[in-house]
Amino acid sequence: MPLETLIAMFALLSLATLLQTLSGFGFGLMVVSSFTLFEVMPLTATTFLVSVLSLFNSASLVIRNTSHINKRAFVIILACGVPFIAVGYTLLEYLSVSMTSWLNLLLGFAILTCCILLLIKRDKVSASGRDSGFAIAGALGGLLGGLFSTFGPPVVFQCYRQNWPINEIRITLLAVFSIAALIRLCIVPFGTLPSKDVIMSALVAIPVILIFTRIGRLIAVKVKPQSVRTVALSILAISGVTLIFQNVSL
Fold first, then answer.
1. What is the pLDDT of residues 129-168, one digit of tens each?
2. pTM of the predicted model, to two decimals?
3. How many CB atoms lie within 10 A of CB 48?
4. CA count, 13 A, side-chain hemisphere, 236
């Protein structure tokens, strides 16, 4: 892989990791949107990279805190989400072959939709919630996860509406994301296989993620979370709008 591509990849990964550490969301969306805009990697390779790094980041924390997982929500979300991961991945493979502009346009609209979801006020509901809410969130998350390796926004929106302890919400989400990333990686051999360069890039990127996660935690006490959230959402929204305008036929 050319040196300039590696530099761009590490710079964008560092920014995405830093913003997620400070704001608590958006790593996959930021990486996928920025890599697509700057043509760092093909979308199929980018989503593989995001799946690997997401799994690496979340699995170790989940293993140490399995008692905090809301098992009912976890099962419903994954039961409804897994089939749609396969559907989304199939769509990605089909669209990436000869309909790249349509795929990028879909990514742009998905990013804007996710931004809107993350902006909506999350009113509390009953502690149990409704099974249908988790089922819909799982299905939508699975479709986004299969397409763009971004399972998060619909599931984050649903879980944060619950009257659960914050640690239960976080660990449940991380558990869902870990399994979703693992399943998506298991599907990869049935589609476009990542090149050796992409696999090596994913491995080399792990220390970058760890370093900037640590930096983010150190400076978190010095910045206002709401300010970082605004910056992160602004970057995502600009990315989404740019992708749409770049790929709309005038």
1. 688 899 999 999 999 999 988 887 888 888 888 888 878 8
2. 0.84
3. 25
4. 32
